[in-house]
Amino acid sequence: MNEYLAVGKVVNTHGVRGELKVMPLTSDLSRFEYLLFVSVNQDGGLKEYRVKKCRIHKNFVLISLSGVENMNEAEKFKGLDLLVHRRHAKPLEEDEFYICDLIGMKVYEGDTLLGTLTDVLETGSNDVYVIKGKNKKEILLPALKSVVEEVDLEGRRMQVNIPEGLLDEV
User: Fold this and answer.
1) Is residue 93 part of a domain?
2) Which of 3, 22, 25, 49 is most deeply packed, by most CB within 10 A?
3) Is there a single domain that holds both residue 112 and residue 144?
4) Are residues 125 and 82 in the same domain?
C-alpha cells in the first residue's frame, strides 16, 4: 500500500499571497477540512508543508501553506500533486477503501479469476469498478454490498458475486 495518498493537483495560483488553486482528487471535499499537513514531490524528494488555511471555491480547493507567502513561491507548485500521509488522512468509514489500494487487485467470482481492477468510476449513486478481463474485455461492476462480498487488501484479492444481468457479458 502507498504511504501517501494524492488528494489534489495544483492547477494554478490564486491571488498574490501564495494561495494555491487545487483540483481535488477525492469525491469527498470535506476531507480537506481535516488537512493539517500536505507533502509535495519537489527537487527529487518529498517536502511536507503545514496547511494554514483551506476553503472550497467553485469546485476547487484554495489552500495556503506555511512558507508559501507570495505568487512567485506558489508558481513552483503548478502541476504538482498534493499528497497526504495516511496517518494525517481522514479516517475511512467501515467498508470504505482508498481507490489507490483497490487498483491492481485481482477480482474473483468463486474460484474463477475475472481479471484485475484497473479503475474506479465515481458516479452519483455508487462507484463502479472497472475489471480488465483475460481477453482484455472490460467488466463494469457496481460497488454494492450485494456484489462485492469481500475485499482483502493485504492479499490483494476481491471476491464478487456478479448480478444475473451481467453474466451474459462476461
Assistant:
1) no
2) 22
3) yes
4) no
pTM of the model: 0.73
> For residue 3, which of 94, 87, 102, 117 has the smallest C-alpha distance?
87
List per-residue pLDDT tens for the chain, 170 residues long: 678 999 999 999 999 999 999 999 887 788 888 889 999 998 889 999 999 999 999 889 999 999 999 999 999 999 999 999 988 877 788 888 888 899 999 999 999 999 999 999 988 788 999 999 878 889 999 999 999 999 999 999 999 999 887 655 54
Q: Is the separation of the CB atoms in 104 and 156 below 8 Å?
A: yes
One domain, residues 57 and 120 = no
User: Is the residue at 133 inside a domain?
Assistant: yes
Q: How long is the chain?
A: 170
Q: Which residues in 15-126 belong to E strands, given as ranges?
A: 19-24, 37-42, 45-57, 60-65, 81-85, 106-109, 112-122
β pairing state of 157-160 and 106-109: parallel
Last residue of a domain, one of 38, 56, 88: 88
Domain of 78, in residue numbers = 4-88
77-115 core/surface letters (b: 16 or more CB in 10 A; e: else): beebbbbbeeebbeeeeeeebbbebbeebbbbbeeeebb
